[in-house]
Structures are given as C-alpha cells and as structure tokens.
Amino acid sequence: MSRMTRQRAAIEAAFKTAGRPLSPTEIHASAVKQIENLGLSTVYRTLRRLEDEGVIAPVTVPDEPPRYELAHVAEHHHHHFHCRKCGRVYDIDGCPTGLKKMTPPGFTVEEHTLVLHGLCDRCG
Amino acid sequence: MSRMTRQRAAIEAAFKTAGRPLSPTEIHASAVKQIENLGLSTVYRTLRRLEDEGVIAPVTVPDEPPRYELAHVAEHHHHHFHCRKCGRVYDIDGCPTGLKKMTPPGFTVEEHTLVLHGLCDRCG
DNA sequence: CTACGTGCAAAAAGTTTGCAATCGC
DNA sequence: GCGATTGCAAACTTTTTGCACGTAG
C-alpha cells in the first residue's frame, strides 16, 4: 500500500538523526538538504501517513508548534521536557503517581499527557 | 489604561457563565448574543489584553484549539481533563507526585502541565 | 503498467494588523 | 476632547487540497 520514496526516506532519516521531536518546518528544513525541491505539502502529507501507519506519534507542547517523534520511542511510555530558553523538547522517562486521586467521580481516564517546563542542562 | 467596554464586558461574562475553558470561537459565539456585530478580531485583541492584565490564563490541550480560563481559577493550581467524546475541557483539582524523580540531572523544572484524557461523567 | 506519491499553485482555517470611525473616561 | 477600542477588510501563517506529472512496485 504505502510506498518507500526518496522523500519519505529523507523525512524518516530526519527523525533518526535528530533524536528528538521535530516540527513540520524543522523536518522540511532537514529533509530538503537531501531532496532539493521537496514541497512542504509533501512533508505534511507524509507526516499524516506516517502517523496513520504508526511510525510516528504527535507531541504537543503548550504555545509551541506541533511536533512528531518516532513511535518506537513513544511506545515506551514517557513524557517531555520543554526548555524555555533554547526551545528544545526532550524525552524524559518515568511517570507521575497519584493520577487516580485527581480523577473526578464518574470520569474515566484513558491517557494523560505531561510536559515539564524549565531549563535544560545546557541552559541552566 | 484599560477601558471597560461593552465588548470586554460581554467577553468576561462569557467566561463567568461558562465556568470552563473556552476557545476564541466559543467566546465569540457566546458574546455575539449580546453584541450583535462583534468582530472576531476584537475577541482576539481582548483576549490578549486580558491575558496581559492577568485576568485570564491560556489552557492548551493536545490537538485542540487554544482555550482560556479566568485567572482566579488558574491561580489555584490545577489541571485539566479533556473528554474525547464531547470535547469539553474540565478543571480538576490535585496534582501528581513524583515529578522530581522524572527530572533529568542538570535540568530545572519551573512548571508543569498535565491533561487527563478519557470520558467525562456524562459521556461515560 | 497502474495507481500512489509528488510539486506547485490555489484554497482553507486561524490569527494579526492597518485604518477610519466610535466611545469611555 | 483625547486616545484607547472597535469593525471591517486585507495581510499573514499554517495546513489542506486539486491537478497533471513522475515513479515505485
């Protein structure tokens, strides 16, 4: 069904070399180095396809553009850290406790998203 | 400096009657009932002003439009619940524990945002 | 060879800005 | 009256879509 094209390969390579969540613009900037006239629309279309196929997963940070990361990273349940100085988003392991106590009566929690904000080791 | 206009009053009233985070479109839909030809740009400008003045605070939910809530609600540290069925966002009390254990060495955490996803009591 | 994927340009959707008219203080 | 605020339209930004061509399988 889904074909391996030069464009798709370059986009997947961008994720592998970056090792952190990337926005559509960052992905385009990285992949365009290999495919000169890569269209931004191709990036958007490919991202949607990769997400549908479970290759990548979306990462949302408040007041930031959308990002994506490789799903095999996302499979291992984790959260994110956003550095307010350099803007980078890092993966962090672990998971908070006490979520059940926060859940209102009658509500069912299926997932949760957590982002820590502050300064990373380089910017601190 | 900042003037109380009919438009601003209607926008603040929308928050008070809703009692939950609202998106710019929801706010406009609510306030336009009182001010017939209220412009959407006025809503955006007023939201920015209210945020600058500390009257409202932004609420971000992954894959959702931006929302705002009254700051006196936000002052009391809390988090949010997003119902995947009705789309409503609820305020919830409490705070998870164990965040420090998740923080990588050398990183400093200043804030955190948490959203629980699932079904609310009406939709469960 | 066939139809999925691409590039480009145009269209949508969401947000911001310029400007003359309006209205709070 | 003065200047902050508004409505409208136009500009911007980000994402999606239409269409003819290219190319993977």
Features:
homodimer; 124 residues; alpha+beta; Arc Repressor Mutant, subunit A; 3-stranded mixed beta sheet; two-stranded antiparallel ribbon; 5 helices; DNA-binding
Concise description?
Chain A is α+β, with helices and mostly antiparallel strands. Chain A has one domain (6-118): Winged helix-like DNA-binding domain superfamily/Winged helix DNA-binding domain (Arc Repressor Mutant, subunit A, Orthogonal Bundle). Chain A has helices at 6-18, 24-31, 40-52, 71-75, 99-102; strands at residues 56-59, 67-70, 79-83, 89-92, 108-119.
Q: What does the model show?
A:
Chain A is of the alpha+beta class and 124 residues long. Chain A has one domain (6-118): Orthogonal Bundle (Arc Repressor Mutant, subunit A), CATH 1.10.10.10. Chain A is built from five helices and five strands; from the N terminus they run αααββαββαβ. Chain A has helices at 6-18, 24-31, 40-52, 71-75, 99-102, and strands at residues 56-59, 67-70, 79-83, 89-92, 108-119. In chain A, the strands form two sheets. A three-stranded mixed β-sheet of chain A has the order 4-3-5, with no helix packed on it. A two-stranded antiparallel ribbon of chain A has the order 1-2. In chain A, α1 crosses α2 (24-31) and α2 packs across α3. The mean pLDDT of chain A is 93. At the A-B interface, α5 and β5 of A face α5 and β5 of B. β5 (108-119) of chain A pairs antiparallel with β5 (108-119) of chain B. The structure holds a DNA duplex (25 and 25 nucleotides).
